[in-house]
Hints:
The structure holds two protein chains of two kinds. By secondary structure, chain A is mainly alpha-helical. Chain A has two domains: 89 residues, Rna Polymerase Sigma Factor, Chain: A, CATH 1.10.1740.10; 81 residues, Winged helix-like DNA-binding domain superfamily/Winged helix DNA-binding domain (Arc Repressor Mutant, subunit A, Orthogonal Bundle). Chain A contains nine helices and no strands. In chain A, helix 7 crosses helix 9. Chain A is globular and about 50 Å long. In chain A, 43% of the residues are buried. Chain B is of the alpha+beta class. Helix content of chain B is 36%, strand content 22%. In chain B, strands 1, 2, 3, 4, 5, 6, 7, 8 and 9 form a nine-stranded antiparallel β-sheet that branches. In chain B, a hairpin with a 6-residue loop joins strand 4 and strand 5. Chain B is globular. Chain B starts with 6 loop residues before the first helix and ends with a strand. The chains are: A mainly alpha, B alpha+beta. Chains A and B meet through helix 1, helix 2, helix 3, helix 4 and helix 6 of A and helix 1, helix 2, helix 3, helix 4 and helix 5 of B.
Amino acid sequence: MSSSEEIGLLISKVAMRDRDAFRMLYDRTSAKLFGVCLRILKDREEAEDVLQEVYVKVWNKADRFATGKASGIAWLAAIARNQAIDRYRARKPVALNVEEMDDVEDDMPSPEASTVAADERRRINLCLEELQPNHASVVKRTYLSGWSYQEAADELGVPLNTVKTWIRRSLLALRECMNR
Amino acid sequence: MTEVLNDKDRWLAAEYALGVLEGDYLRLAEQRFEQEPAFRGAVESWQSQLVPMLDEVEPVNPPAAVWEEIAKRTVDPQSEQKSWWSSLSFWRGYSGLATGLAVASFVALLFLPANGLLVQPPPVQPLVATLTPTGDAPSFVARFEPDTGALFIRTSAGDAAETRVPELWVIPDDGVPRSLGVLDEDGLGNLFVSNEHQSLFGADVVLAVTLEPVGGAPEGKPTGPVIASGKLQLL
């Protein structure tokens, strides 16, 4: 059994209130998720706080995992990223101009939903290499830092719509590459 | 219930998974993730595709105090009381026939009404089962929602033989398997349980997966080997 399947099984056991499985899951995944939170928050104390919230959420929502189709680690990472991003954004209130967000390049084909086996771990890196180098690094930095479109635009010093177009193009290309 | 996502929906799902949304769009995406299975599926598919990027994040061990706090915050008196009853290791340890009978009589003691007949209380809470494999078949996890009759099942590995398909059975006290339906070849299923079969569901009832000819078992009786089985438990 691969480690990602093992994590999925542990989460399913946590859904059944198996505390041993919960501890095992924590031992197997907390260092990675702590790293993810630190990368976004860049503050140890806040990251510790958020990590706590993450596992309390895992305990309370594990039953949701059993009926979903995310891989175990993807499900955990999504909880950790969302929680860390929430905390990060709570630090500074963001004024969002909704009009500006609207419908950039809506004629772009849509990213078709499909399930790809989660154990194709190296694949995304190969696919990222196929993108223009600056676009690939934008996607990566945005994902790892938990940036919003606006934050990415500010950090990179380019207009919001430019960043949005880069990222959407990259997502499309990524999905195409990964479904090949 | 198949909701079809349009292009805008798919972008919203992709951008939500990446984490770039904020404000109204973020709230909209969160709400749809909670409420719409098709949207949730699109988001989860993206999450699984993006997560390998986290490979380059260095793991950092959190201080021990974090776990201690988590452990404190996840204990609630109710779950502690029933934990021996619902914990998997309990069922594993007591899977023999003799103890199975002992458990059955314990259940009987719990639910024995004055007229002496064993009645299962109708389930109102969701029931879950982990179907542990025989041999090197994959494990399955099943969840039954009594209020809607929906039964979701997923497996830890999609590795079914090409010429046969996994079929799910409920085996109540009388020991006669009733088919609940054929699963995808990758072991996924969102089934609807008929009223007649719903009445068979309850804690301690066995679910099993067999391998059957494409199209399902002929004559509604299992013909292939049992690849995984497990008991339903109240969640």
